[in-house]
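Ticket reopened. Same input as before:
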Amino acid sequence: MAPPVGARPGWSRRAQYGLFFSFLATIAGVLIGLFLLGLSIVAPHAYAGVRGATLDVTSPVTGALREATTTVTGLVSGAGNYWDAARQNAALKKEQAALRQQVIQARAILNENAQLKAALQLREKALQAVATGRIVGSSFESQRRFAVISVGRGDGVLIGMPVRAPAGLVGRVVEAGATASRVLLISDRANIVPTRLLRGGQAVISTGRGDGTVDLRPLEVGRNPFRRGDIVVTSGTGGLYPPGVPVARVVRLDDDGAIALPMADPADVSFAVVEQPYEEAALRAADEPTPEAR
Amino acid sequence: MVRSALGNNATIGRGPRRLARYWPAGSVAIASTLSVLPIVTEVGWGPDFGFLMLIAWRLLRGDAIPAWWAAPLGLFNDLITGSPVGQSIFVWTASMLMLDLADRRTMWRDYWIEWLLAAILLFISQVVRWDVDALMGASYAFRLIWSPWIIAVLAFPLAAFTASAVDRWRLGR
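Engineering reply: fixed in the latest deploy. New output:
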C-alpha cells in the first residue's frame, strides 16, 4: 500500500495551515540547531556567558545532593571499616612502620635537595592556590569527561587554570560561572598533558581516552619505556600545569606506549584545588584554541 | 458506556488537570534536569534522559508535543547537560521529523516496533554526538558508544512507562 500523500487533518483550512506552519517551524528548528552547533564547534567560547550562568543555577542543587550521597556512602563504608577493624589495624600498623622509615629517608633527601638548590641559587616558584572547591558533579551522560566544581569567577577562577587534588592532577577549567566551573578532566580525549616518567624522567605525552583511562606515549620513539606500576608526573612543559604533580599509574602496556589510570579519581576526590597556571602566558594562550584541541 | 456507569464512579467529574497541554513538554524538561544528579564517574554511561522522554512521548501520542517544541527543549537540554549548544536542538527536531515520516510508513504499531524505532533514534543521536565530539577535538574510540547506547535502549521502556503514567494522570483518567 502506498503511503498517504500527506497528513491531512480533515477539510478545515485552519487545521491544514496549522499543520503546515508547524512543519515549517520544525524545519527551521533543525536549521537553527545546525547553525548553533556549527558555532559551538567553530567558536567554543561563544556561549561562555550563558553556559556559565546555567552552571551557577544547577551546581547548588548538585552540591546539596552530593552532600547527601557522600553522607550515605560514608555511613556505608564506615560500617564496612568496622567490620574488619582488627585486620585493618594490623595492616595499617605495618604500613605505618614502613612509612616512618621512608619519611626519615625523604627528610634527608629534602635537606640535601635544599642545600643543593641553595648552592645552585635556584629560585623556587611559589605556587599559590586560587581557590579550593568540592567536585559536585560530572558529565555522566556523555563520553566527554567533565566535572563541575563548586568555585567560580567569584573566587578568582579563570578559564584555563589547572585543577589538582591531593592525590594528583584533575584537569583544567574550561567554563567558569560566578560560583561554579566546569573542569576538563585528564581522562577526556581533548586533554593532552605533557608528562614525564617518574622513574628515569623520560618525556611522555598523556592523552585521555574517554573511558576513564589515560593513554601514555613516549615522546622519543624507541623501546617501550613503561613498566606496570610506573607513575608519570607533569613535566611543566607548556607552562600550564606545574611540574611534579602525579598524573597517572600504568596498568597495561601496549605496542609503543601504555594505558594508565589517573591518580586522582574524581569520584573519590573530596576537594579540588584550582591553581595559577605555572606560567602566566599559558592563561592567555588558553583562551585561544590550542593546536592540541584540534 | 453502561458498564462504566454501573461501575465505581470515581472517574465521574474528573477531567484533565490544569495545564494538561504543557505536562508532556514539562516532563521532558524535568528529565533533562536529571543530569544535575551528583554522579561523579570516570566513565560516561548514562542515557540522555530528556531525549528518551521526548521520543517516549512522541511514540505514545503524535500530538502530545508539537514537533517544533523540540527546539527550545533541546536548547534547555544542551545548557543543562553541558553538551555543545545546538546538538540536542538539531538531533531532537530532526528525530521529530523522522518519526513523522516513520508514522506514514509503518502499517501497524506495536510495542516492539516502537522500541526498535527508539533504538534506531538513540543510536543516531549517539553517532551524531560522537561526530560532534570528534570535531571538537575529542575523537574517542567508536566502541565507547555501544555501552551507553545499550543502557539507553534498555532504559526506554522505563521512559515509555513514565510517559504513559503522566499521560493518564494529566488527562485525569
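Chain B touches chain A through 60 residues (CB under 8 Å). Residues 24-171 of chain B form one domain. Please confirm and we'll close it.
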